[in-house]
Amino acid sequence: MSADRSHYAALDAADPLAPLRDAFSLREGLIYLDGNSLGPPCRPATEALRATVEEEWGAELIGAWNSRDWIGLPRRVGDRIGRLLGAAPGQTLVCDSTSVNLFKTLAAALALRPGRGTILSTADNFPTDLYLAQGLSAWLGEGRCRLRVVEPEAMVGAVDEDTAVVLLSHVDFRTGALLDLPGLTAAVQARGALVLWDLAHSAGVVPLALDDAGVDLAVGCGYKYLNGGPGAPAFLYVAERHQAAARQPLIGWMGHARPFAFEPVWAPAPGVDAFRTGTPVVLAQRALEGALSLLDGVDLTVVRAKALALTEAFVTEVEASPVLAEFRLVSPRDPAARGAQLAFAHPEAYALVQALIEQDVVGDFREPDLLRFGF
Questions:
Q1: Which of 107, 111, 200, 223 makes the best surface tag, with the fewest CB within 10 Å?
Q2: Catalytic residue among 75, 104, 224, 276
Q3: What pLDDT is stored for residue 3 in this prediction?
Q4: SS3 category, 56
């Protein structure tokens, strides 16, 4: 049954997250429901950019690499994200793009499981994840690396003695369906394989406990729920227990044990720093660092509760409207089984999304017939 406006007004009035609204630069009247694709600009990110250009780069020039610790940004920002992932310091690194980090961590997983050559994933996984696995297979040759995809319900049973790593997305990018990260991690590891989680649609909006769950490897982006800006750097997580043995293929000078010794032979830096490759993208890293300050002191269980309340209210109102009877919910009906997004199928989905955008309600369209809304 639909609720009246006063019900939602009361929820807004009691919302502990309401003060954070003023930190975002969104014009009055705009309803932005696409943060699962690109987070909106926030003032701490733009202020960090201004300070970096004017006070750091502008005033200190090359000296800021040391005086402002630009060189330490990948670890410093990585540990801030690690707090949101339930990861102890020294396991999360901010660098490169999600795709590059997937390539690095997939290759590392294969090396950690010698004698096993299969990357197992689901047929509905994010296409780029599958492309990276296909590319790694083409590069190494199928004798060393093979991608195998199965239906989601068959995934655990498909893990065999040749499976090196299972590649999974925590939240489905189309439907918002949320996987059981702790349960699936344990089930896969019990069969001798590693698990690599793509957290692009859950980091910052779903409480995570990677260390407690015994996760092996993970990647994610900085421009969705972390609000780091378009093309913000990505992150990777390598469990401490794997770091001594883990090796990634894109070895560069920033992953060297002594990068400024300029030695001709590569020697890995200790810990997760061995997964660094090139020079940190300072402006992008500082913008992300500024955006992450918004979440200092914020309990992600409160964020999760609000996301569940918003998605449930949205579904309830759609289901109660005769005018919207043609909209078919493709996200799980159980709020606890989805992330912070909803998808509805409709034969005119593209046109409807464009019409909504014209009315200042911004969602997005996904082939072939999905209207997608992030909360």
A1: 111
A2: 224
A3: 78
A4: helix
**Which H or E element spans position 349?**
helix 349-358
Active site residue 80: no
Beta-carbon neighbour count of residue 243 at 10 Å?
Answer: 18
Q: Is 329 helix (H, G, I), strand (E, B) or coil?
A: strand
How far apart, in whole angstroms, are the C-alpha atoms of residue 375 and residue 365?
15
Angle (nearest 5°) at CA 85 between 230 and 371: 50
Mean pLDDT in the chain?
Answer: 97
Catalytic residue (one of 198, 216, 273, 364): 198
Q: What is the pLDDT of residue 184?
A: 98
CB neighbour burial string for 96-134, b if at least 16 within 10 angstroms, e if fewer: bbbbbbbbbbbbbbbebbeebbbbbbbebbbeebbebbe
Pairing of strands 235-238, 217-220: antiparallel
Say what the pLDDT of residue 92 is: 98
Given a cut of 50, the residues of the chain with pLDDT beneath it are none
pLDDT score recorded for residue 111: 97
Is 131 an active-site residue? no
**Number of CB atoms found within 10 A of residue 305's CB:** 14
372 is catalytic: yes
Paired sense of beta strands 194-198 and 217-220, if any: parallel
In three-state secondary structure terms, 355 is: helix
Active site residue 198: yes
- For residue 347, say if its preceding peptide bond is cis, omega within 30 degrees of 0: no
Task: Identify whether the C-beta of residue 200 lies closer than 8 Å to the C-beta of residue 102.
Answer: no
pLDDT, tens digit (0-9, with 9 covering 90-100), for 354-365: 999 999 999 999
Give the C-alpha separation, 257 to 142, whole Å: 33
Compute, in degrees rounded to 10, the torsion defined by CA atoms 310, 313, 314, 319: 160
> Would you state the pLDDT for residue 4?
85
Which entry of 80, 116, 146, 223 is annotated as an active-site residue?
Answer: 223
- How far apart, in Å, are the Cα atoms of 354 and each of 40, 108, 241, 255? 19, 42, 48, 45
Take residue 46 and report the two structure tokens written for it.
């733009």
Whether the upstream peptide bond of residue 89 has omega within 30° of 0, thus cis, is no
Instruction: Measure the CA–CA gap between 123 and 110, rounded to whole angstroms.
Output: 20
Tokens (6 digits) for 161: 């003695």
pLDDT at position 2: 75
